[in-house]
């Protein structure tokens, strides 16, 4: 599988966000000039107070993987950045099992 081979409906991106008193609510996404922001929506979320630890992230990932589909169906390719929590023990094995 090479980057760019998948259709956009196959891709699920894991992203973290934080909220504080200064955060505002945005109705629109952001994208590069001339491109439209994806409006595919959120397929899974988990809201908690404070930071995730290893076990909490694994539980979040299990919940996400449970609603994802087999390849090559929509929502079947998981994309994560190199955030340190994405590299904890068990993440690669869990993704491979699914």
Automatic annotation (TrEMBL):
Protein name from the UniProt record: Tc1-like transposase DDE domain-containing protein
InterPro entries the record matches: RNaseH_sf
Recorded GO MF terms: nucleic acid binding
Native source organism of the sequence: Paxillus rubicundulus Ve08.2h10
């Amino acid at each position: 599988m090479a980057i760019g081979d998948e259709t956009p409906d196959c891709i699920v991106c894991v992203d973290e966000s934080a909220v504080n008193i200064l955060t505002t609510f945005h109705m629109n996404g952001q994208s590069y000039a001339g491109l439209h922001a994806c409006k595919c929506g959120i397929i899974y979320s988990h809201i908690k107070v404070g930071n995730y630890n290893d076990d909490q992230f694994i539980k979040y990932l299990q919940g996400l993987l449970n609603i994802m589909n087999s390849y090559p169906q929509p929502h079947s390719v998981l994309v994560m950045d190199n955030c340190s929590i994405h590299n904890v023990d068990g993440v690669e094995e869990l993704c491979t099992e699914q």
